[in-house]
Amino acid sequence: MVSLCDIFTLERSRYYYWLNVKDKPIDLDKARQLDMVKEFHQDPRGSAGARAIAAKLTKKGEKVGRYKAASLMKDAGVESRQPGQHKYKAAPKEHVDIPNHLSREFAVTEPNQVWCGDITFIWAGTCWVYLAVVIDLFSRRVVGWSMSDSPNTELVAKALTMAYLIRGNPKGVMFHSDQGCQYTASKYRQLIWRYQLKQSMSRRGNCWDNAPMERVFRSLKSEWVPEQGYGSLDEAKTDIGEFLMGYYNKRRPHSYNGYLTPVESEARLAG
């Protein structure tokens, strides 16, 4: 055996492994689960972790918890692609004209009670492009978004208008954001007044006051956006639109919703 391994340049450990497993029956249940793990891992472009995969397996009738899912991921040769933790600056003072009405009360009982909005930037070809998103805090569902090559008031206004129309022109919704100049501009505050919304703002420089929006952008950039960015604004719009309104809303289990998707969470309330 030693001579044959040397001749064919094979590691002896592989030969002994083959001797141990060649007569063992194939575990069909585990083989099926491994195939499902690989499929679920690829849906969010190689970023799904053990909790998310466990939730998806459970929906398919497999009795798999977080630690079992982690073991299956290891056997399948896949791992979650996640970034490190973010660090935020402390807030020096609170805005005096638009108070923080939300005050980190992120758990709401019904849709259209509180919306949150924010802006992020993404590389597209030769420049940065800007994405404004609005979510409903009840289910963390994306209800409005807009992209452009300028981070101006029009960008956030389009996202808010989309949310207002998609949600059926609701009245009295609290809209929470940071203190970016886009959200404090008179044009935007007039839009808030026209839609009969109640404006709320985070304390200056305190991203934790709008943590649910940070979570959306973290998921977008770690799970979906290519590492090299996009080739153009149009390419970014198409792909990110699929993430926000397709994958994030309809296919991605959210821990806040008990690992239901945002759409499933709202449907459960309606049903």
UniProtKB/TrEMBL annotation:
**Pfam families xref list:** HTH_21, rve, rve_2
Q: Which residues form the Integrase catalytic domain?
A: 107-270
Name recorded for this polypeptide: Transposase OrfAB, subunit B
Q: Which InterPro entries match?
A: HTH-like_dom (IPR025948), Integrase_cat-core (IPR001584), RNaseH-like_sf (IPR012337), RNaseH_sf (IPR036397), Transpos_IS3 (IPR048020), Transposase_IS3/IS150/IS904 (IPR050900)
GO MF assignments? nucleic acid binding
One BP term from GO: DNA integration
UniProt organism field: Shewanella benthica KT99
